[in-house]
Every structure is written in structure tokens, then in C-alpha cells.
Amino acid sequence: MTVESTAARKPRRSSKRTAGAGARKTAAEPELVQLLTPEGERVEHPDYDVDLSPEELRGLYRDMVLTRRFDAEATALQRQGELGLWASLLGQEAAQIGSGRALRDDDYVFPTYREHGVAWCRGVDPTNLLGMFRGVNHGGWDPNSNNFHLYTIVIGSQTLHATGYAMGVAKDGADSAVVAYFGDGASSQGDVAEAFTFSAVYNAPVVFFCQNNQWAISEPTEKQMRVPLYQRAQGFGFPGVRVDGNDVLACLAVTRSALERARRGEGPTLVEAFTYRMGAHTTSDDPTKYRADEEREAWEAKDPILRLHSYLEKAGHADAAFFEELESESETLGKRVREAVRAMPDPEPMAIFENIYADGHALVDEERAQFAAYQASFSDGEGN
Amino acid sequence: MAVQKLPIAKAINESLRKAMETDPKVLIMGEDVGKLGGVFRVTDGLFKDFGEDRVIDTPLAESGIVGTAIGLALRGYRPVVEIQFDGFVFPAYDQIVTQLAKMHARALGKIKLPVVVRIPYGGGIGAVEHHSESPEALFAHVAGLKVVSPSNASDAYWMMQQAIQSDDPVIFFEPKRRYWDKGEVDTDSIPGPLHKARTVRDGSDLTLVAYGPMVKVCLEAAAAAQEEGKSIEVVDLRSMSPIDFDAVQASVERTRRLVVVHEAPVFYGAGAEIAARITERCFYHLEAPVLRVGGYHAPYPPARLEEEYLPGLDRVLDAVDRSLAY
Q1: In which residue ranges of chain B is CATH 3.40.50.920 found?
Q2: Does 3.40.50.920 match the CATH number of domain B198-324?
């Protein structure tokens, strides 16, 4: 496993076009759009820029910190037995917050099961995400409340749903855009290739946002692809761009640009956010069996939160009070999540038979009645 | 002209047209459904009248067709998807089973998936491999899906209307070798419920249960048995999920004998489910074990052998005789 990481520390400052299909670079020196170096230096890019106020910059920082805090709390809750499983986003905060904050309210998101930061940007209460990991439901939130679809566990399936939804947006004559999130592992799925084909053929207003976190459980990207992922878009007839996935500003700029392109009716874009899964695949995984500590350490130096922290301080955009207040807000969030999970009741057994069909089904009715009678048979008639 | 004599394919075509006229959210999607009108011409003329925005020729990718139909349904559309042949549904099986069937439950009922998946199915047309299969049990086994199959033109028209109006995903199996069988369709009548079985021939000695293409075979078998003095009742199941067990039970309580007939392999097939349920419900009424006639546990054979493989008049009558011999 070679980690394609060196370029992230040596941002390109030339005016040469760095992103887009057809760029030929060696694996050791990936093309990527970067606006904020790992050291927190603001750099220019010829094609992408963001002009953010100090308040907006602090907002992005706050989003990333709170998302990481929520994620850490969920991991802890799993260790305490309160959750059955957790899929941590640790290390991917910039990719998720940057892309998530590029969205308009009327845009629509189709996530995998790791998009906790995007959910945060969409205004989904973080505790809503935990029901499925606790085992009290399979998701359960109303996707239309925040235009944030349910977490999809089958890898890559949601890219087709996003494409179909985007086809519908175009039919409606709306200028909303749709984002399909997926990962490097999903890029091998046939559904993702089909989504690329359908979206290109119908010119659907969809952005394919791939967080290439380098690992599909234990399999490195070499097991998924032989050319940089973003280059694949060219073969389908739409642009692909690789962005520093640990640079929240670049992720925001690139996603915003792709969304605008979709809104203008120019079709799909593939964004490959080059990032790293700092933690395990899920709490059931053990990365020590397949990857080296040095690799993780190398990526720690490119941490998405630290680099924005450095920039905010150096630029004088945030003072100690801001960071202290955020620390306190983080703790409050952690406490709220902890309490909410612990208070989350198990569903009633009869819930097994609910919401299977919208219009009902005779067999479900029959089995529900049988189950109810069976349950009632344990009652002694005195309320016990 | 409320009553027309139409072949099944045309009845479905008229039903799709009616649905598209009534509801602008209804879309047709599939391979070759546009200009060509589908390989069986079931969507003939719709492209011309409704345009490419509503009659969508898709890339040749079944998972993509169903996956994007799900997305369109989430956006408020009511896609009617055509899978060109039964044996080609499997690339879409993942989307149908893991997504289409379960998304309503995943959302605790907060979203609906009104998608119809049309599948021309069954043999008897002398086709090459993958064009003659009957995979209905593979869908009926999945909670969240409804599975139906008409046997005649009137049902084809009305069941399609009801499937499109359903807020649940419906797998609509069309008996392709009966596409050209004509029947009367009264487009002004009021149809019965989608998932109710119908007794299509009264009898007192034995009940034959079938659906789709086998209903015709069973009616012919019943007529032949009549000449030998046997009175056979034929029940057209119409829906394989849910199954109208009450109707089958009511018939068997009178006739006391049941033979289930389908083209699909009998092993783990609809007949197995019906036999188990009816044995449970009618144990003290039955004079004979429930028998099944259907396909064998073998790949659908080459066309030159399909007459041997498919349940025909004689195989149905053989089972009738065996049942009556108890």
C-alpha cells in the first residue's frame, strides 16, 4: 500500500490546470485541488476559490469539531454497549462539511451509512442517526424533512436513487441539484457505473461525491482501481476532479462548482475527495491486521480540523474565547447524545409488522394477529 | 365503446395509456419501450403520444432501470418499469429486494415507493435461454413486494390500473405466451380488489388453482374432465403476494381436493406455500394430499423440449386422476 499523500503537503501554486479529466500524474503525486495546506496556509487555485467571511470560516470549523465530537461520543457509546455498531467518520470531516455546506436547502442528498457530517449540515438531529446503530430501527427519519435520504448500507445502491431523483428534478424543471455520496470501495460496484451511465445519458443534475478514504474495510484502493478514480468520469462523458478531502475550503469550492454546473443543466460531475479513514471501518473492525501505524501517522499531519484551526489563529479570525466556547458546546452535544441514546426505548414487538406495506397485506395482517395472540398467551389475565 | 375485445398485450397498453392520461406523474421506463414500443409492443404508440420525457428508453442495465425508478418515485413520480424478459430481471434483483421492497419500512412508513415492475414471463414461445422463466416465487418471498399476474385481457387492463395506483411496489408478471389471446375488456366496469382470487369455473369434485398462463390450461383440463363426468372447479389466483387463501379454502372445503398448477418449478414454489396453508386450514376437509403440477428442478430446457417440461393438459389431468384416486 502506497499512500498517495505527498502532494497534499506540497500544494501546487502554479496556474496550470490541475483538476479535470485526462490529467496524467504518477500515483505518488496525485492531482488535487487544495486551498488550505496541511500547515494552514491559504493557497490559490486557478479554477476554484471561496470567499468566506471570518464568521463563515468559524462556522465550518465549528461544524467539523462538533461532528467529530458527536462521532467520538457514538464510538464511546458503542464501547459501552449502548450501540451495536458505529461507523466512524474520523478524518473525513472536511470532505463532509465542505460538501455539505455547499448545498442549498432544496438540494437532495443520498448518503451511505457514514455521512454523519453531511447529516449535520442538513440539520438532521444527530440522535436520529443512532437508532439504526442501536438496533431500534433501520433509519426511520423522514428523508423529506431535510432532503437527506436514509442511510444506505448496500454499497453503491444509492447512487442510482440519486440519479433517478435528479432525473425527476430535471423533469420538474427545478434547478435543485442532488448529491450521491459513496466511497472508493463502492466505485467497483456495477450500480455506480450504471449511475454514471444513466446520469450522463440523461444529463441529470447530480454530483457524485466519492470520499476516497483509501480503505474499503481491509482492501486498499489498489484492489479497486488501476487509474485515479476521478479520471473515470471522462469515459462516461462528464468531468471528474480530485480535491484534497482534508481541506474543507477546497471541498466546499469544488462541490459548489459541481452543484452550479448541475443547476445550469450541464449534467453530472464526479468529485473524488482524497481523504483518509483515520479509524476502523466500523467498531467491529481491526485495522491493525492490515495497515501500518506509519500510514495513519502520516495522515494525522494532514488533519482537516487542525489545519483550519491554524489558519483561523494565524489570520486572526478566531480568538481563545471562540475555541473555549466551542469546547463547551462540544461537551454539551456529547452529553445530549449520550442521554438521548440511553433513553432510547426498544420498539414494541408489534413494530415488526408495521410499515411493511403502505396499502396493507393480508399475510402481514394474519401473522400480526397470530403473533399478538401468541404474546397474549403469556399473560395470566391479571395484567402480568 | 366501453367494452372492447382486446388481446392481453393491447389491454395492458390501453391501461398504461389510461394511467398516463389520468396522472402526469406516471412514467414508462425500460429497454426499447420508446420508438419500438417494446419487444412485445406492449408500450406501442405511447412514445409518440407522450414523448420521451414520459416514455423513457433506458440504457441496457436492469439494476439502473429499477434503481433510477426508485429515485424517481422518491421525487414523486410513479414509474412503470419494463424488464424485457423474465430471465433478465436478476441484475435488478438486488435493487428490488434490498431497496424497493424495504425502503418504506426503513423510513418507518414516511416514504412510499409506487413502482410497478412489469415482467413478461413464462415459456411456450420457443425462445432461447433466459426468455421463458417463471421467477415469481423469488419475489413473493420478499416482504414489501406485491406480486400479481393476470390471466386474461380484462384482468390485464384492470390489474395494471390498480398496480399503478398502489402505493406499494408491485411486480406485475405478464403471461407472454397469452399476450395475443383476446378477451372482452369493459373499461367502464368497477373492478374487484387487486389481490382477490376469482373462481373461473365452478365444480364440485376437485379444485384446480392456477394463475397467469396456466389458467387457460386448467380450464381446458376441467372441460376435458367434464367429458369423463368429473366436475372440476378452477380458481384463478391472480395475486401471488398476498395470496387469497380464504378463496382457496372456501373452494377446497366444498371440493375436498386441491391441485395447484404453475409453470414455475414446484420446489419451493407457490404450490408449496398453498399446499402447506391449505393443509393447515382444511385438514379435516381434505380427501387427498394437495398435489402440485409445475416445472422440474432443472434449468428451463431448450425450446424443443419445453412441451415436455411445461405443465400441459395431460399432466394436469394426471394429477386430477391421482387426487381423485385417494
Answers
A1: 198-324
A2: yes
Beta bridge partner(s), residue B259? B208, B291
Which pLDDT tens digits describe chain B residue by residue (326 residues)? 589 999 999 999 999 999 999 999 999 999 999 999 999 999 999 999 999 999 999 999 999 999 999 999 999 999 999 999 999 999 999 999 999 999 999 999 999 999 999 999 999 999 999 999 999 999 999 999 999 999 999 999 999 999 999 999 999 999 999 999 999 999 999 999 999 999 999 999 999 999 999 999 999 999 999 999 999 999 999 999 999 999 999 999 999 999 999 999 999 999 999 999 999 999 999 999 999 999 999 999 999 999 999 999 999 999 999 999 99
Q: Are the beta carbons of A167 and B68 separated by less than 8 Å?
A: yes
Tell me if chain B has a CB within 8 Å of the CB of A171.
yes
Distances in Å between the Cα of B103 and the Cα atoms of A150, A155, B34, B169 are 9, 15, 29, 10
**Does an H or E element contain A170, and which?**
helix A157-172
Q: Has residue A1 been placed in a domain?
A: no
Cα distances (angstroms) measured from residue B152 to each of A98, A273, B238: 57, 55, 10
Neighbours of A346 (CB within 10 A): 9
The reply to whether A19 and A134 lie within a common domain is yes
Q: Do A201 and B53 touch (CB under 8 A)?
A: no
Q: Look at residue A33 and give its three-state secondary structure.
A: strand
Is A382 found in the same domain as A300? no
DSSP conformational letter for B95: I
Q: Which of A4-13, A358-367, B14-23 has the lowest mean pLDDT?
A: A4-13
Domain that holds residue A379: 349-384
In angstroms, what separates the C-alpha of A160 from chain B's closest C-alpha? Answer: 5
Residue A29: pLDDT over 70: no
CATH of the domain at A181: 3.40.50.970
Q: Is residue A6's pLDDT more than 80?
A: no
- Tell me which chain A residue has its CA closest to the CA of residue B76: A168
Q: How far is CA B59 from the centre of its chain?
A: 26
Of A138, A357, A363, the CB nearest to B106: A138
Q: Which of B20, B40, B210 is nearest to B118 (CA)?
A: B40
Q: What's the pLDDT at B22?
A: 98
Question: Quick one: pLDDT band at residue A52, thresholds 50, 70, 90?
Answer: very high
Catalytic residues of B: 131
- Range(s) for CATH 3.40.50.970 in chain B? 3-186
Which residues are registered as beta bridge partners of B174? B120
- 3-class SS of residue A56: helix
Q: CATH fold of B3-186, please?
A: Rossmann fold (3.40.50)
| B94·A154 Cβ contact <8 A | yes
Please give the DSSP secondary-structure letter assigned to residue B218: H
The pLDDT assigned to A31 comes to 83
Closest alpha carbon to B311 in B295, B300, B323, B297: B295
Select the residue of B64, B104, B143 nearest A358 (Cβ to Cβ). B104
Contact between chains at B109 and A172 (C-beta distance less than 8 A): no
For testing contact with chain B, the best of A132, A356, A366 (most B CBs within 10 A) = A356
Q: At what angle do helices B62-74 and A157-172 cross, to 10 degrees?
A: 60
